[in-house]
């Protein structure tokens, strides 16, 4: 035993320097390679490769030989690997690449062809060979590898792999066809393919890709009338393109053909509302209502229809008569569906209409208090009514009562979106009051909210506070701006404008000024002074083109010309300019869609 231990110790003593030398050689070779000193690296890699025979060092040794123009030696070591590792066609690709680098393209292609011919029905071997071709920048041979694999291994037709190669070389048409063929083979992969197409097609600035996918899907839908999967994808595509009206047309077709319950139409209606396409949302809900009161979505659609009509009206040039007509619709619908825990949304929306637009504050308050005490009301619905009541208290100027109610909701629903909303509104209340540090501390908590909308709103307000308090010790400009925002919330538009004008006069070069112009434009639109609002947007576009509100201003100005000033040509010009000047804007999809509609494109 003692002899064995002594031998091991001696081996350890003698092998330690050898291991240390090997490690130094590897580091030195790697350093030479990174510095492109291939003539020095090749000597060391030859030594390491001859000792280890590992593929890792084979690759580096081969690369160094090619970089130094030693094609004969490169050919020699590749042929040696081919001889020793029979049945591995990847080394034939290496041999072909050696010939290609040496300028012998005929021999190169012969070896590539031979590699493909030697394939066996082995999925891993086929994939490895295709990857070898891709590594050597030979995508055409990678495609041929997968096509050969499809023939010899029919149970695994390599749709995904081929699609990836076509995407790599920019052949959108063939990429799309492979993904759609995969759906025949494996319908369960629909969500995965949808995600890939979202990245490959809709995250690309090239709108031709959209049309390629649309054309392919329309053909599939026409050929496969009883296969819902392609119709689903076509609807999804129109939604991605913000062509909601056409998405509805195809959704209705599916609803009728497959005798559905209107669920997909209802979901589309909600999506249209989120994206402010209220006309299409209204059509969605009317379609479901016309299916009859036995429909599962009948009452929900009744309520959402009123919500959409409400939102649409308040974004147009409404009159007092329009508001009273809307009130009648609410009252009529409530008589039809009844007051219950299921129809609280109607009561809450009517209360808001009373408070903020019809100057019926007592009626609004009474309606919300009744709603909160409705038998069977869900906790989050009661919280939504309390949130509305807090807004009305703030509207009336009862600031601390409003804050108390916001705080109660925040505490009761700490980990719920409605609690986050209450926290945000409370933070904004303190912002209105000029208590910026406290407001910001609450907003910074909300930046991690699971609700993207709340998180974004919190982030934007937090940045506004930071930008105007951290570097600027004079918080008076921000206080004036916040005061104007509070007055705007309370519909005291003239007072808000007076404060904003005074801010511009007192601080003519302040960083808040683009925000001030934007806020003034919002208020002027409420007052139906569209030409004045347009001029303010133009100031932001020309004088603050570098700032965060520039693309917002351009989009709002385009909408103003389209919807209020009846200047279609100017609207189209602005939508197009937004696409070229601010390609990364969140408004790009809507600008593109609005431009195409105004131009009269056939989007179907």
What does the model show?
- This protein has a domain at 476-599: Tetratricopeptide repeat domain (Serine Threonine Protein Phosphatase 5, Tetratricopeptide repeat, Alpha Horseshoe), CATH 1.25.40.10.
- 77% of the residues lie in helices and 0% in strands.
- The chain has helices spanning 2-34, 38-52, 55-67, 71-84, 90-102, 105-117, 123-135, 139-152, 159-169, 172-185, 190-202, 208-223, 228-240, 244-257, 263-274, 278-290, 298-314, 320-337, 344-356, 361-372, 379-396, 399-412, 417-432, 436-446, 452-467, 476-489, 493-506, 513-526, 530-543, 550-563, 568-581, 588-599.
- The relative contact order is 0.03.
- The model is unreliable at 7-16 (pLDDT under 50).
Write the layout of secondary structure elements.
Blueprint: H1 2-34, H2 38-52, H3 55-67, H4 71-84, H5 90-102, H6 105-117, H7 123-135, H8 139-152, H9 159-169, H10 172-185, H11 190-202, H12 208-223, H13 228-240, H14 244-257, H15 263-274, H16 278-290, H17 298-314, H18 320-337, H19 344-356, H20 361-372, H21 379-396, H22 399-412, H23 417-432, H24 436-446, H25 452-467, H26 476-489, H27 493-506, H28 513-526, H29 530-543, H30 550-563, H31 568-581, H32 588-599
Helix pairs in contact: 1-2, 2-3, 4-5, 5-6, 7-8, 8-9, 9-10, 10-11, 10-12, 12-13, 13-14, 14-15, 14-16, 15-16, 15-17, 16-17, 17-18, 18-19, 19-20, 19-21, 20-21, 21-22, 22-23, 23-24, 23-25, 24-25, 26-27, 27-28, 28-29, 29-30, 30-31, 31-32
